[in-house]
Amino acid sequence: MFYIRTADRLQRTSTWLENLEGGIEYVRKVVCEDSLGIGAELEADMARVIGNYACEWKVAIEDPATLKRFRTFVNSDETDRNVVFVEERGQIRPASAEERARSRRRSKPTRVAA
After folding, report:
1. What is the pLDDT of residues 17-39, one digit of tens each?
2. Is the separation of the CB atoms in 79 and 53 below 8 Å?
3. Which domain holds residue 36?
4. 103 inside domain
């Protein structure tokens, strides 16, 4: 929290520490020995950050409205018939041009045999 309070926006911690007068020893005194008398404030700030933390991906997965914005194919609610996968060694991979042509002749839009 001391870093967040004193560093420049987007400043790397290594650069912040190098530019900090007194370096790591100063940080140790401030954080461990509470030389500035701000230990309680730093603890309260940290508790607030922890209390308000939410994983953005978990929130997106749990919210149907947000989840609806994420689709496999942007331009379609269904699978894209132009994207063809070939199963190989138990996994799928994009089909080559020849495999896509063969698939169109068979009119199987999503998967073809390797």
Report:
1. 999 999 999 999 999 999 999 99
2. no
3. 2-53
4. no
